[in-house]
Amino acid sequence: MTIGERVLDRVLRWWGSRGGVAQFHRPTGAAGHVAGWIMGRRSSNVARNHWAVRLLAVGPTERVVELGCGPGVALAALAARASGGLVVGVDHSEVMIRQARRRTRAAVRAGRVRLVHAPVEGLSTVDGPFDAALAVNTVGMWPDPVVRLRELARLLRPGGRVALVSQPRGAGATAATSATAATELTGLLADAGFERLRTEVLDLDPPAVCVLGHVAP
Ligand SMILES: C[S@@+](CC[C@H](N)C(=O)[O-])C[C@H]1O[C@@H](n2cnc3c(N)ncnc32)[C@H](O)[C@@H]1O
């Protein structure tokens, strides 16, 4: 970790203990803008999102949906891969949708990225089918995640792929916390009917975990 990252970590811990965590669940107003700015630039955030996009192995003509897209770090990387496809980002924060739009401006203009300001509880408004779906550090914030993941499965084509990522950010989080998060995500995907589940780990502090799976063919 660089000195800058360490300082940022301390600031975030201080901010978190004063209610700032809410700004990462649903960024609003000026504080939400700062939260999005941090998510868009913090090196561990960027590394985690780019790693997840690589794991999802999106092809040039595929259609992909990202739930809880935040400021659009993964969306931009997905759009670069799906150069002849479509990437849809969903978030219930208007501030995040605006930042994601700025980050993917050219692809939005070209009609290759669409942004949907909606809660994941409103997935029926999103037009499928998709080849793949991604959710990074957001599933733990959703109400009834198994119900949401079942709805997501219906948006995916048969055999479609999903990647759920978690890097626990609470004070004192360790590799064991990440392992527990992976077990929880695996359980949620299994309960929602996803198959061929596997876990990948990215060596960050604490580690990021990505659970990948498929809709039944
Ligand atoms: C910690 S941020 C992660 C953002 C992004 N995935 C990243 O890794 O940079 C969580 C994001 O999920 C969004 N979110 C949380 N609950 C949501 C819900 N029920 N519906 C839609 N978006 C949600 C928040 O607005 C926020 O942008």
What brief labels describe this structure?
alpha/beta; binds S-adenosylmethionine; Rossmann fold; 9 helices; 7-stranded mixed β-sheet; 217 residues
Protein model, in words:
The protein is α/β, with parallel strands linked by helices and 217 residues long. It has one domain (3-214): Vaccinia Virus protein VP39 (Rossmann fold). Helix content is 47%, strand content 23%. It contains 9 helices and 7 strands; from the N terminus they run ααααβαβααββαβαββ. It has helices spanning 3-20, 22-25, 29-41, 43-56, 73-81, 94-103, 105-109, 145-155, 175-191, and strands at 63-67, 86-91, 113-117, 130-136, 156-166, 195-202, 208-214. It has a 7-stranded mixed beta sheet, with helices on both faces. Strand 4 (130-136), helix 8 and strand 5 form a beta-alpha-beta unit. The longest helix is centred in the first third of the chain and has 18 residues, at 3-20. The model has no long low-confidence stretch (mean pLDDT 93). The site of S-adenosylmethionine has 22 residues, from helix 2 and helix 4.
SSE topology sketch:
Blueprint lengths: L2 H18 L1 H4 L3 H13 L1 H14 L6 E5 L5 H9 L4 E6 L2 H10 L1 H5 L3 E5 L12 E7 L8 H11 E11 L8 H17 L3 E8 L5 E7 L3
Parallel strand pairs: 1-2, 1-4, 2-3, 4-5
Antiparallel strand pairs: 5-7, 6-7
Helix pairs in contact: 4-5
The structure holds S-adenosylmethionine.
The site of S-adenosylmethionine (SAM) has 22 residues, from α2 and α4.
